[in-house]
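Bench notes, afternoon.
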Amino acid sequence: MIWNATVPFGAWAVLSGLLFTMGAAGFLVRRDPIVMFMCIELMLNAGNLLFVAAARYLGVVDGQVYVFFVMTVAAAEVAVGLAIIVAIFRRKTTIDVDEMSEMRG
């Protein structure tokens, strides 16, 4: 049996809002930079989900184009962010955000 029911746009918007809220809460609560980066990625993907759902609902392709650019920026952000975290870990042997309140050369 093939079931071709569409999910209403409001459900996608609620799911996107919940994912964004979980990412924001995780970013504010956790102090590990790797987890903070994952929470930022979760927030970006929540925005991507809403872009795609809105594009599907409106019948345009603009949402997918925006998602492509957001994913490109997110990949660059992760590459640079992880390089910074590795450099800090090599220098201080810790990656605790509370201990990195000062950035001195």
